[in-house]
Design brief:
By secondary structure, the protein is α+β, with helices and mostly antiparallel strands. 33% of the residues lie in helices and 20% in strands. It contains 15 helices and 22 strands.
Length: 596
């Protein structure tokens, strides 16, 4: 079958993705520059199916009127939580603009939960403190335990009423980059089965996470690292791919997220002897320590024989105990998470201990950008007209460990910042569109359809996800990472022997899964090579054979993959601008010890 462009579309701004970051950037552009033509691609059937909708607990933001909290404390918590690898300029920008974004959402109709005095309710999350670690602080505002859905409802409405155009079930397959400038993308409209060239003056990548690289994940089925794969195929690097977060409390079986809200409202982690074990790992913060510490604590309890074997799934876990909480907490603060335990494991959180263990959750690494979301190449040069925001991007706000609630804060703040930057960029662009010739997608998709053999997409994908879960997970070693790299190479070789039975393009799920498999392999390879290079333990990247943080790795990792599949490594310095500026609190932003 001949693979070719069916039609060409033109717009001012193209957004690849339609989740929280994508919609917030679109809304910002349309509010600031009415009449801007925006096309947003979404892989799913509707923007509301985007993974942002599943975010539960809340988003961190310091109310300027709060006498017990301060933006500088939020900045410190983010820096310390990142294991001193976040970029301080980005931390400052996002934390200082957080409350402004809360007001933006509320003024456009988001139904934040309120207390009896009518003020916005707040809850505490792991790693969020007052007075530079003195004690926990209530900083996260929320909408029950469906905060992400509220953000999506609000942002989607704002973009829709201002004229955005959505192309549902459409994927970007090749960036159109020429002479250091992006001019759009080639996309596949799955339902119609046609490839279209979309020419844009500015392109924003906001494709979300890559959790499907792992077998046990809180991520939805569509999170296959598509944005990271797009830039890698275009010859651009990804940054800190080895920084993968495992949420401490995934529901045993489906791996679905049991929100950190459960611990913020008083949930207690217990081992098989019903001991509350977190006091031995984080004496001060206990269950409210940062996620990487809690995840390692749970895995350590399991490795040392203090886990419980689940009879249905033959997997070890620990308990989260919510039975001591008032009925009002179950019914008003955690109703959706409670329903997940009832639906998937037939347990009542009011009376039963609930089984949890770490589950792949979030990718701190991603597409390298500056503080305004402009994508950079391996030499730190900006690719004109190309931006990234949300989980697929790495500015870097999270460094090597993300604090709970900072993810959806980043979505709306970086979405807004990127929108503002795009508006400025559009002022300098000509009315006509440059039209580069696509290079890679015809050969790639023709190859998918023409290949023959007996290999199974599903089996190869399952093997990849299993080896990543077993060998490059919460704990890693040189030997385990090498085994994963060897397995990935074998899978890559065997993909050439996959036969796609359905050769028609419309709604061809085999073809989509074949494309996703290539994306997953690229992301997995970058994770493994970054993890093998970084012979230290930092945040969520923990090496049993190098279990200390080392100053020689006080930098970001850049991983590029060439056309032959070889990985190339470079560095990007960590921004230390708060520390370097001096002043009253600057010593808190040095490379400090991380204890809780």
């Amino acid at each position: 079958m001949k693979i070719e462009i069916a039609t060409t579309l033109r717009c001012d701004v193209l957004i690849i993705g339609a989740g929280g970051a994508a919609l917030r950037s679109g809304a910002e552009i349309l509010e600031t520059r009415p009449g801007t033509s925006i096309i947003a691609l979404t892989k799913v059937t509707h923007p509301q199916k985007s993974h942002t909708s599943t975010a539960q607990g809340g988003l961190a933001a310091v109310d300027p009127k709060d006498p017990l909290d301060s933006t500088i404390y939020h900045m410190f918590d983010t820096w310390k939580g990142s294991d001193c690898t976040a970029d301080q300029n980005v931390v400052k920008i996002i934390c200082e603009s957080a409350w402004e974004q809360i007001l933006w959402l509320e003024n456009r109709g988001m139904h934040f939960s309120r207390n009896r005095d009518g003020r916005l309710s707040k809850r505490t999350f792991g790693g969020h403190t007052r007075n530079f670690g003195e004690s926990s602080v209530y900083r996260a505002v929320f909408e029950a335990d469906r905060t992400g859905k509220g953000i999506m409802d609000t942002s989607w409405g704002e973009t829709l009423k201002k004229g955005i155009r959505f192309l549902n079930q459409t994927i970007g397959v090749e960036l159109l980059i020429e002479s250091g400038q992006c001019h759009g993308v080639v996309a596949l409209k799955q339902k119609e089965g046609v490839f279209v060239k979309i020419l844009a003056k500015a392109t924003i990548i906001a494709t979300g996470g890559s959790g499907q690289v792992y077998r046990v994940t809180t991520n939805c089925r569509q999170n296959t690292g598509d944005g990271l794969a797009l830039v890698l195929q275009a010859g651009l690097p990804v940054m800190d791919p080895e920084a993968v977060q495992f949420h401490p409390t995934g529901i045993v079986g489906p791996g679905i997220l049991a929100s950190e809200t459960l611990r913020s409202v008083g949930g207690i982690l217990r081992n098989k002897d019903l001991e509350p074990f977190m006091v031995g790992y984080a004496p001060k913060m206990k269950e409210l320590a940062p996620r990487d510490l809690v995840a390692r604590a749970i895995e350590s309890e399991i490795r040392e024989g203090r886990g419980i074997i689940n009879p249905d799934h033959d997997i070890a876990h620990v308990w989260i105990d919510l039975t001591h909480l008032p009925a009002e907490v179950h019914e008003k603060q955690i109703p959706e998470v409670s329903s997940f335990f009832k639906r998937y494991v037939n347990l009542d959180t009011k009376t039963d201990l609930c089984p949890v263990r770490p589950s792949n959750h979030y990718h701190m690494g991603g597409i390298p950008t500056n503080a305004w979301g402009e994508i950079e190449d391996q030499n730190h040069r900006i690719i004109a007209g190309l931006y990234a925001a949300g989980e697929c991007a790495a500015a870097s706000f999270h460094g090597f460990n993300r604090l709970g609630t900072n993810s959806i804060l980043e979505l709306i703040t970086m979405g807004s910042l990127v929108g503002k930057r795009v508006v400025e960029y559009l002022k300098e662009q000509p009315e006509t569109h440059h039209e580069p010739t696509p290079e890679s997608f015809p050969k790639r998709f023709s190859g998918y359809l023409a290949s023959g053999g007996t290999e199974s997409i599903g089996k190869l994908r399952s093997r990849l996800r299993t080896v990543m879960t077993d060998k490059v997970s919460v704990f890693r070693t040189e030997e385990s990472i090498a085994e994963a790299i060897e397995t990935i190479a074998d899978i890559e070789e065997r993909t050439g022997k996959i036969a796609i039975v359905n050769r028609r393009l419309p709604m061809n799920q085999e073809l989509l899964q074949r494309w996703e498999l290539d994306n997953l392999l690229l992301v997995a390879k970058s994770i493994c090579h970054g993890a093998r290079y970084r012979k230290e333990s930092r945040g969520a990247h923990f090496r049993d054979d190098y279990n200390k943080r080392l100053d020689e790795f006080n930098h970001h990792t850049l991983i590029g993959i060439d056309s032959r599949g070889a990985c190339h490594l470079q560095r990007r310095e960590i921004d230390m601008s708060i520390f370097e500026a001096g002043g009253e609190h600057s010593t808190h932003f040095d490379f400090i010890e991380r204890s809780y």
